[in-house]
Model the fold of this input.
Amino acid sequence: MSSHYEAPIRKPLVIGEKTYHDITVDVARPVEGRANKLWWRVFAIALIAFLWGVGSMAYTVGTGIGTWGLNKTVGWAWDITNFVWWVGIGHAGTLISAVLLLFRQKWRMAINRSAEAMTIFSVVQAGLFPIIHMGRPWLGYWVLPLPNQFGSLWVNFNSPLLWDVFAISTYLSVSLVFWWTGLLPDFAMLRDRAITPFTKRVYSILSFGWSGRAKDWQRFEEVSLVLAGLATPLVLSVHTIVSFDFATSVIPGWHTTILPPYFVAGAIFSGFAMVTTLLIIMRKVSNLEAYITIQHIELMNIIVMITGSIVGVAYITELWVAWYSGVEYEQYAFLNRATGPYWWSYWLMMTCNVISPQVMWFKKIRTNIMASFIISLIVNVGMWFERFVIIVTSLHRDYLPSSWTMFQPTFVDAGIYIGTIGFFFVLFLLYSRSFPVIAQAEVKTILKSSGEYYKKERDSKENHQSLNH
Amino acid sequence: MSNKVVHAIYNDDDVLLDAVKETRAAHHHIEEVYTPFPVHGLDKAMGLKPTRIAICAFLYGLVGLSFGTAMMYYIMIVDWPQDIGGKPSMSFIQNMPSFVPIMFEMTVLFSAHLMVLTFFMRSKLWPFKKAENPDVRTTDDHFLMEVALNGDEDSAVEFFKKTGAVEVKVIEK
Done:
C-alpha cells in the first residue's frame, strides 16, 4: 500500500468501493449488453443526417461547387469553417491523451479513450472538406508528390494547403495508432470475457493477441510515452499549419503572426468543450458516473476557462495590433467585424467565447453538470463562429471596394455540415457500444492511489497510527 | 521434470510484486508474468532490461527528417526550380522556411509509425495472432507468475502458496 501513497488533499478519481474486477465489469457492460430504444432512436437520427450529408456531397460533386453559397470574392466559407472547426475539436483528444500524460495527470485516464475516439472521428469529418471543396475532387490525388508520366510533375511545397495534407494525414494516422495501441489490453479484456464465438473472434482480431506479459507492458508504457511526446508537438503543429492557411496570406484580418498559438488555444478550448458535452451524456447513459466524476468535469471546465481566457487575450491583442499598426486596411477589417454586416456573428463569437467561459471562475457553476453542459455547447457554437468570422469577414471586404460583397450559404452548404455532424455521431454511437469507452487497464493502475475506498482505508490507518504514537 | 512449470496466481498487484521479489531471492527462474495492467516496478523486480524502443523512435525520426528534406530539395530545387510567387528556388536554404512544416511532419510520421511497428514486431502482436495468456482472468483482475520447476514439486507449490498465491498449479508444458 505504501507505494500507492497520495497526498490526502487529492480528491478520489474512482468513486465507491470498486475492485479491479468491478472496473472490468463496468467497462464491459455497455459492450456486452444490448442497445436500448434511446440508442437506436439517436442512431437513426444521426444516420439520417449523415445520409442527407452524403446526398449533399454527391450533389456538389455531381453538379459543381456553384451549388454552394460561395462567390468570386468569398471563395472559402462554410467548407473551410467546418474543416477548421472539426480539426479544432479533434485536438482535445490528443491533448488529453498526450499532454496530460506527459504531465502525469491521473484524471485523464477515465476520459482519454473517448477523447481520442472523438479526435479520430472529428478528424475524419475534417478530412472530408479539403476533398469536397475541390472543384475537381477526382484529381485530389495530384496533391501527393507521386512520380508520374507528366515528366514527373511534382507539387509545390510552398503552399500551406499542401502542408495541411501532410499535417492532417500524419495527425489522423498517428492518433489512430496511438488510440489502437492503448486499446489492445482493453480489447484483450473483452476477448477473454466473450461468451459468443463471434464476439470472441472479433475481439481476438482487434486485440492483436495481447497477452499482458511484463515485457509487453514495459514496451507498451514506453511506446505510449514516446507517442505522447510526439503527439504533443504534432497537435501544436497541425493546428499551426491549419492557421497558416490564413496567416501566410496577404489578406487584412488574416495576415497575423498571432494566429498559430491563437488557433491552437481555440482548438483546445473547443475540443475540451466537445469532450465535456459528450462525456456528460456518456457517464449517464453508460452508467460510468463512478469513473467520470464531478472532479473530472470540473477539471475540464478549468481547462475550458484557461484556454477561453487565452482566446480572449488573443482577440484583444488582434484589436490592439490592428489599431497600433496604422494600416487602414487592417483597422477597417476589425471595424468591419464589429460594426459591418456580420456584426451579429462577431458579437455572438465574442459573447460565447470570451464571456461564457469566465463564469467557470465560480465553483458553483463549474461543478454543476447542467451548467457545464450548456456552456460546453455555447463554446462550440462560439468557436464555429470564430472561424466563420475570421474567414468570411476578412474576405468579403478587403482591398478593392469594387470587390466587396456578401456571403449567403445555401442548403447544400448546410446539408454537408449537418451530414458531418451526423457522421460523427454515427461513428461515436457505434464506438460507444462496441469499444471499451474507458481505458480500464489504465484506471486499474490508479485505483489504489486514487480510489475513494482505498483513500479512506489509508486515511483511517494513518489516523490510527498517529493516535498510537 | 524439465518441461514442467508452476503457475502461481495472485489477486493483488502488491502481493505479486512481493512474490516476484521472494521468488527471485529463492533463485527460482521466473519465465513470465501476466498482468491485467502495468504494475509499476514489476520489470525492475523481475530484472528485465530496459526497452530500447525510444532509441529506435529517435533514429526513425532522423530517417523521416532526411527523407522529407531530400524529397523537397530534389523536387523544389533540383528538378523544377521554378518561380512560384517569387519564392527563391535557387538554393535550399533560401526557401527553407517553407519546407519546415513538412520536414517536421515527416519526422513525426516516421518516428511514430515505425516505432509502433517495431513494438508490434518485437512483442509479436498482429491482427490474427492467438492470445497466449494461460488464464483468461489475467486480463481482468488476476496476476499470473510462471516459474520453471526444478527440484521438488511439493516444496515449490508450498513456497508459492506462502508468497500469497490464491492458486498454484503445476502445468506440463
Residues 52-123 of chain B form one domain. Chain B has five helices and four strands.
